[in-house]
Amino acid sequence: MAVLATTAVIAVAVDQWVKHLSTENLDPGEPVRILGGLIYLSLMRNGGAAFSLGSDYTWIFPVITLVVVGVIGWLASRLRSVPWGLSLGLVLGGALGNLGDRLFRAPGPFQGHVVDMISLFAPNAEKFAVFNIADSCLTVGVCLAVLLELTGRQRDGTRLVNEKKAPAKEETA
Predict the structure, then answer these.
(1) What's CA 170's distance to the chain center, in Å?
(2) Cβ proximity of 65 and 134 under 8 Å
(3) Which are the catalytic amino acids?
(4) pLDDT at site 52
(5) CB neighbours (10 Å) of residue 67?
(6) What local confidence, expressed as pLDDT, does residue 48 receive?
(7) Which spans are transmembrane here (predicted)?
(8) Peptide bond into 83 cis (omega under 30)
């Protein structure tokens, strides 16, 4: 649980710090090109989910996030695995980072727009969705959870092992 909590706190802190720096220093109409154009810093506000899906239903995202936070809290009580703590901590931190925007940013509570600023390969989501640190934490955390599941690593620290059936012996007469 300590890994989960520490990871979540760090994820939220970095996300909010980067969002603060972005809103204070980036102009929405002037993307900043870095790493030779691999990354652009393009300040945008998103009322929807990834790729602005669901922009008309902004209120649903905080509700879903609160359910996710509750499920992670329930799972945390039986958590005994460092990799699972890291995975769930990243998901929790990412969810809370964006929840803060949904609750406290304009246009108002449960309708706030998430601050996004990282655009890959071209400015302003021309090639890929613009995202933020919280989105990155969510994505990495979910990918790690899938990998842990696929490799049989359990949240209680045990590991499932596939027992291969021994080939059937042929009877000789």
Answers:
(1) 53
(2) no
(3) 116, 135
(4) 66
(5) 11
(6) 76
(7) 57-75, 82-100, 129-150
(8) no
Mapped onto helix, strand or coil, the DSSP state of residue 130 is coil
Asked if 4 contacts 88 with a C-beta cutoff of 8 angstroms, the reply is yes
C-alpha distance from residue 171 to each of 164, 165, 167 (Å): 21, 17, 12
Token pair 């002037």 in the structure block, residue: 30
Single-letter amino acid code for the residue at 118: I
Q: Compute the C-alpha angle 154/158/163, nearest 5°.
A: 95
Joined together, the tokens standing for residue 30 give 């002037």
Quick one: which of 101, 94, 104 has its CA closest to 68?
94
- At residue 109's C-alpha, the angle toward residues 64 and 43, to 5°, is 85
Residue pLDDT, tens place only, 85-133? 999 999 999 999 999 999 999 988 888 899 999 999 999 989 988 999 9
Instruction: Specify the amino acid at residue 38.
Output: L
Q: What angle do CA 118, 121, 123 make, to 5 degrees?
A: 60
Single-letter residue type at 112: G
C-alpha R_g of the chain = 21
8 Å CB contact between 48 and 55:
yes
What is the model's pTM? 0.87
